[in-house]
Amino acid sequence: MSTHIARKRFGQNFLHDDGVIADIVRAIDPQASDCLTEIGPGLAALTAPLLEYMPHMHAVELDRDLVTRLQQRFKPSQLTIHSTDALNFDFLSIPAAETAQRKVVGNLPYNISSPLLFHLVEFAPHIDMQVFMLQKEVIERMVASPSDKAYGRLSVMLQYRYEMEHLFDVPPHAFTPAPKVTSAIVRMYPKPVSARHATDENHLSKLVAQAFSQRRKMLRNTLGDMVSLDQMAACDIKPTARAEELSLEQFVQLSNFLLAHPDH
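The line above is the sequence of Ribosomal RNA small subunit methyltransferase A; the predicted C-alpha cells follow.
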C-alpha cells in the first residue's frame, strides 16, 4: 500500500508512538459492549489497538483516500466507516444497545477543534465518555479557572456541560509530521441534567459569547445591550469586572436573573 501524505487542509498529523497509543487506549478503557465512534481514524494508529478489545466500532473520516485504506484493512463487520465531515455528523444516528456505553474518541484536527467540541455538545447527554487528543493550549482553555489567562467562552460552556480531566501531554515527536505544538489528552464526562441549572441554555450561551466578545473590555461595555447596571448589581457583579473574572456559576445566575426579571 502506498504511503499516505498528510494533508494540511485536513489538519493531519499521524500518531506513531506506541507508548502514547497504549496510554490513550487505557484512558478510553474499551469494553466489548461499548458503542465506540472514532473521529478521524487516519492511518488506524488507535483504531487497530481498540479493535483488539471490541468486535466492532465506528469511524468518521473525511479524507476519501484514508477511507479507502481503512476499507482495505478492516472488514465491515469490524469497522463501520462514515465517510463525512464530523462537523455535520449526527453522532446519535449510530444505534446503540440500551446497556452499551456510548463513547466518542479521536485525535481531533486542530484546525476545527473548537467548532467540533461545540458540535458535540448537542449530543453530550447521550455520550457517556469522550476522550480526545487536542492541542495542549485548547485543553488548558477547556479546564481553566476564572482569572486564568486561558479562561474564556470555551471554558465556561464546556464546564457547564462536562466534568473534564487533562490527563497527559503528547510531545510533537510522537507524530508524523511533527506538529509545531505540544498536544494533550482530555477525558470528558457529561454532567447530569440535575447539575445544570440554567433556565435557558441558549440564553446562557449568548450571554457568555457576548461577554467574551471583547475580553479586555469591562462588562458594562460588552454586556450593555443585554444587562443593565441594576441587573448586574442585583447579582453582585461589578460592572467594571471583565468576563474572565466571572465563574460559571455567576454566568448561570446572571442568565437566570435576566430571564426572571427582564425589566429589573
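Note on the example: Residues 4-11 have pLDDT under 50 and may be disordered. Residues 201-260 form a domain with the Helicase, Ruva Protein; domain 3 fold (CATH 1.10.8.100).
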